[in-house]
Amino acid sequence: MAEDLYQRYQNAYAAHRSHRGTCTTCSDTCRCPVGQRLYASFTKLQDAYLNRQRAQRR
Fold first, then answer.
1. What is the pTM of this model?
2. DSSP assignments along 22-39, one per residue
3. pLDDT of 3-57, one tens digit each?
4. N or C: which end of the chain has fewer CB within 10 A?
5. Element containing residue 29 per DSSP (H, E)
6. Nearest to 6 by CA among 52, 54, 56, 39
């Protein structure tokens, strides 16, 4: 399960990075609606993955 979460987190990052590389609207401080959705998905999965890692270390 943790590996699946890690893979989903990495895929979300790749999708966000790919979009950011081609979108002329997105910047470091402002995102288009699609860019914002991709970024939110990435950060949500990243938080879930890191929280799971922290919980396993305890």
1. 0.85
2. H-SS--SS---HHHHHHH
3. 799 999 999 999 999 999 999 999 888 999 999 999 999 999 999 999 999 998 8
4. C
5. none
6. 52
